[in-house]
Amino acid sequence: MRILYFTRDYTPHDHRFLSALAKTGESITALRLERRGFQREDRPLPVEVEQVLWRGGQKPARLSDGPALWWDLKRVIRAVRPDVIHAGPIQSASFLTALAGFRPLVSMSWGSDLLRDADSSAGMRFATQFTLNRTAALVGDCAAVREKAASFGFPRERTVLFPWGVDLKQFSRGDGANRLRARLGWEKQFVLLCSRAWEPIYGVDVAARAFVLAARENPELRLILLGNGSQAGKIRQILAEAQEMVYFGGQVSQTELPEVYRAADLYVSASHSDGSSVSLLEAMACGLPALVSDIPGNCEWVREGQNGWLFADGAVEELAKCMLAASRGSHAERGNQELKEMGAAARRTAEERADWERNFPRLLEAYEMARR
Fold first, then answer.
1. Do 2-165+356-371 and 179-353 agree at the fold level?
2. Which of 163, 143, 144, 111 minimizes the C-alpha distance to 352?
């Protein structure tokens, strides 16, 4: 089978999908729509994957580029002659493929493209509807995505769901000692971790404001903040008064990331929209209880008081109170039995539902469904 994998940019998620597809023995060709501001993935494509050079993939794509990209995509399709095109997000790579008239199309939702962007404007609603009407099979990572697609009339039985999952061997609980925590001198402090991109949709500003409020009351709190993004100036300003209690870790490689998770006591995400968040699954696989916004995607993974806690989306003061509750009283000491049990439950959840090796074959089922 000849598969054309068409994505908006090249991220760690794309690298993972392409690496797994490369092992299937199928003919895999990769196409990239644009290159945006921050370099998201610096590992090369797997050697088995052929990359197509075309008009896209070198700079941010603009609406005015649409006609030229559409015309050149038709040329690429004629040259590659794929049996199926796997494209996403819905309103960018998948929409362009639908415009080009190719079938069978497997559209892959990246979560927020359906859960948030689809209703953001009349133009996005049109692109979503047009694409889904021409999609043979839809791949999603949570039930909320399937239900959103169904609201546009897409048949539920044509949706293949699987969490993108994580490498459970790489992301594991570790053996106790942690070099990063020791280097920071935070062995006795209660450490929170937020690893989301600094973009409005991920609510890192909410998490930062909550941390400042909580740290005023409990000076033993510490925060590891990874990533970067368009809100960098705003977030650093919010954290100015607590900057000595924050470690700005920047961009961390996939190799280093598990060690960072293991340096924390609690994972925090204030995202306003998510499917099955891979960073949440990575944290859970590393044995971290999670404190996350109560959006549908998170609620499919986090059970209140069992493997983590939920707070109302956007509620800064509530999040601060949750941080404090997790860090003091019955949860005061690192290694506390209740926190250990929640971390063990988080790991079990990852083992049961977020195993990448076990989940990936569902994608191949979507390809076969599309061709029938």
1. yes
2. 163
**Tokens matching residue 186:** 């935070």
Delimit the domains of the chain by residue range: 2-165+356-371, 179-353
Beta bridge partners of 29: 4, 50
- DSSP secondary structure letters along 72-97: HHHHHHHHH--SEEEEESIIIIIHHH
Asked whether the beta carbons of 348 and 341 are under 8 A apart, the reply is no
CA distances from 93 to 24, 109, 308, 319, 339 (A): 23, 11, 35, 36, 43
Check if CATH label 3.40.50.2000 holds for domain 2-165+356-371: yes
Task: Judge whether 354 and 284 are in contact, CB under 8 Å.
Answer: yes
- In the Cβ-directed half-sphere of 333, how many Cα atoms lie within 13 Å? 3
Fold of 179-353: Rossmann fold (3.40.50)
Beta strands in the chain (DSSP E): 2-7, 27-32, 50-51, 84-88, 105-108, 137-140, 159-161, 190-194, 221-226, 246-250, 266-269, 290-293, 308-311
Q: Are 286 and 307 a contacting pair, CB within 8 Å? A: no
Name 166's bridge partners: 355
Placement of tokens 């607590």 in the chain: 242
Are 213 and 317 within 8 A, CB to CB?
Answer: yes
State the pLDDT confidence band at 37, using cuts at 50, 70 and 90: low
Q: Are 4 and 155 in contact (CB under 8 A)?
A: no
Q: Is the pLDDT of residue 354 over 90?
A: yes
Q: What is the pLDDT of residues 167-215, one digit of tens each?
A: 999 999 877 668 899 999 998 899 999 999 999 999 999 999 999 999 9
pTM of the model: 0.87
Residues with Cβ within 8 Å of 210's Cβ and at least 6 positions away in sequence, in order, are: 270, 316, 317, 319, 320, 323
- Percent with pLDDT over 90 in the chain: 86
Position 12 pLDDT exceeds 70: yes
Dist. CA 100–CA 121, nearest whole Å: 23
